[in-house]
Amino acid sequence: MKNINLKIADITQEDVCAVVNAANSSLLGGGGVDGAIHRAGGEQILSECKKLRASLHPDGLPTGEAVATTAGNMRAKYVIHTVGPVYSSCKNRCEELLANCYINSLKAASELKCHSISFPAISTGIYGYPKGEAAKVAYKSVKSFLETNQSMEVNFVFSSKESYDIFADAVKEL
């Protein structure tokens, strides 16, 4: 699809309207992409996340939901935080929950009038979602959303050639 791009890059350096953070439910930072985004964006992201926890999400952000904050010191204007499913404990809802991460992030970007967004491979790190399976869910979800929102440019950003290749191969199978 013409407005979907795959690339190997540092998501914190993306020059887009919004980058997606594969967050944990606390919204207060963590490891992997989450930690990298919080470090690159600085205190402003954490400050806004604390406000979200104090108001809209006192028990944490539910899996599959998405919320936006500033991107702080990053090139992007916004960070859209979404919590992916932990593969070993999402039972028969894994695909639905992961699809919701992508769809709800895209909806948030659309509400912010963003025309460009970059995603990491949500839930494929410590949350254990098999990369090939996750790639198919991600691509189908984004493609479906773009059928009615054709002005959005979507990037899937990978930190390694291995992850890029797994995603590209999985998409070819669709």
From TrEMBL:
Cited Gene3D superfamilies: Leucine Aminopeptidase, subunit E, domain 1 (3.40.220.10)
Pfam entry (one): Macro
Occurrences of domain Macro (ranges): 1-174
SUPFAM superfamilies, alphabetized: Macro domain-like
InterPro entries registered for this protein in UniProt: Macro_dom, Macro_dom-like
Protein name: O-acetyl-ADP-ribose deacetylase
Protein source organism: Sulfurimonas xiamenensis
Top-level taxonomy: Bacteria, Pseudomonadati, Campylobacterota, Epsilonproteobacteria, Campylobacterales
